[in-house]
Structures are given as C-alpha cells and as structure tokens.
Design brief:
19 strands; 4% helix; single chain; 308 residues; mainly beta; globular; 19-stranded mixed β-barrel; 2 helices
Amino acid sequence: MATLVSPPPNNVTTPADEKQKVDYLNLPCPIPYEEIHREAFMSLKPEFFEGMRFDFTKGLNQRFSLSHSVVMGPTEIPSQSSEIIKIPSAQYEFGANFLDPKVMLLGRVLTDGRLSARLKIDLTENLTLKANAQLTAEPNMSHGLWNFDYKGRDYRTQLQLGNGGLFGASYIQSVSPHLSLGGEVFWAAEHLKSGIGYAARYNTDKMVATGQVASTGMVALSYVQKVSEKVSLASDFTYNYMSRDVTASVGYDYILRQCRLRGKIDSNGVVGALLEERLNMGLNLLLSAEIDHVKKDYKFGFGLTVGE
C-alpha cells in the first residue's frame, strides 16, 4: 500500500514572514516635532561666523561652570539699497551654567545689556519643562517662552506658551517602525495670526527623509544619506507659495578622528564651510567661511574654544 503523505498546511510561517511582522503595539518613540529636520540642519545650517571668536569655559565642580566669550568682527546694518553695509563691533558675554541629570540652567549677560536664560527640568520620566527668556532695554524686544514636552511610548506632544498671547501645540506619532506623522497649530493673539502644519518623517539606518507643509505658505523637504558612520550627505528644498521664494541646497558632514568638517552650497550661489579641529584636550580650533558671489559678501572667521 502506498503511503499517503498529507500536503503541508498553508499557514506555515517561514523565517522571512516572521521578519516582516511588525508589532504595532511596540513602535519606537519619534523625535520631537520641532526637530524633524535635525540631521539635515547639522550639515546645511552650521553656525557660521565672521571675525574673531574666543570661548573659554571653566568648570568649578561637576555641575557648575562659568563661561566667557569674546566676539570681534563686522556687523551688518539694515540698508534699503542692495549694497551690504557693515560696521566694526566687539562684544563680551559672561555665562553661568548648572548641569544636573534632571535640571539644566543657563544664563548669559552681554555688554550691550541683554540678558538671556534657559531652563530645562525633567518633572517626571516622561514630562519635561523648558523655558527661554531674553530681557533687553529695547522696547517690545523682550520675550519669554514656556514648553511642556510629554514623551509617550510611541508618540510625543508639546504645549507652547509665550508672551504676546502666543499659543502652540504639536503632536507626532510613529505609525510604523520607520515612519512617523505629526501636526502642529499656533495662535499669536498680539499679531492676530494663526496657522496649522503637517509633517512626515521616514528614517532608516542609512537615510532620513522629511516633508513639512504649513498654512503660512511654507513647504520644506529634506533628505540625508548616511554614506558611512563618519560621512553624511544632505539636501533640502524650501518653497513659500505665498511669496514665491524658492531655495535648494546640498551639503556634507565629515567627521574625522580629530576634526569635523561641514559645508553647503545653495541655489542662491552661497558657499560655506565650517571646520572644527581638536588641537589638544580642551582646545578646539574653528575656521568659518561663507561666500556670496552675487551680493559680493565674503565672511571669514577664526575662533578658539578652551574648556569642555
């Protein structure tokens, strides 16, 4: 008698099927809504400066430190003509910093009388309070801002309150292991302006793609390709459908053992690069350059940072 062999059941799970299964009840927590372009900004918007800059930080103990900053260089002043007008200027800034695992306090005072402060407190494991304030003698130029950030298992939400009747709220939710969607609203009572925006972010180990649109007319797209652990390439596209302004740029972020080099070029012909090199423990060299051939504006900067 022939042996009867029953066919394999149709519901057999292969290793490939198990790999494709997604646990939608255990998705990763996304980054904050206001930081969805974080990787692109690191390459495309480095902190360029012009002139000479010197920063010194002295730690008094593990939590408290003092900082001193001196900046000398030209300052652009508003002009109705296309010609750029610069005047020489110098500025000193004194700062005090308190850093704790759950509390961060930063204070700065400048020679022109401006006073700024930043506060961050972890009220609970999931709820964080952030505050920023700036006081100045100029009328209507002082401002304050409060942020309450809540971090859920697979979502983040933020409530924002500011002077002048500013109110804002944002929410971002992971909908898959790599995709997160979010939105924001704001209302400025002093200027009688309101707006709403939406954003999407897709990220893997090798790339990050982000899209954002708002009722204010802004459309922003960015893409970052991680070539290796030390090299990243980035591009972005910004369009305002009310003013018809369009800007696109490409840039790079190259991290070596002793230095970091970032640069970009945009559709307006502006080329910039920033080099940060570690000369010794606690001593860093900064070289900055930004060239705008169309406006004939050339900015070069040299800086030293002492202390960690």
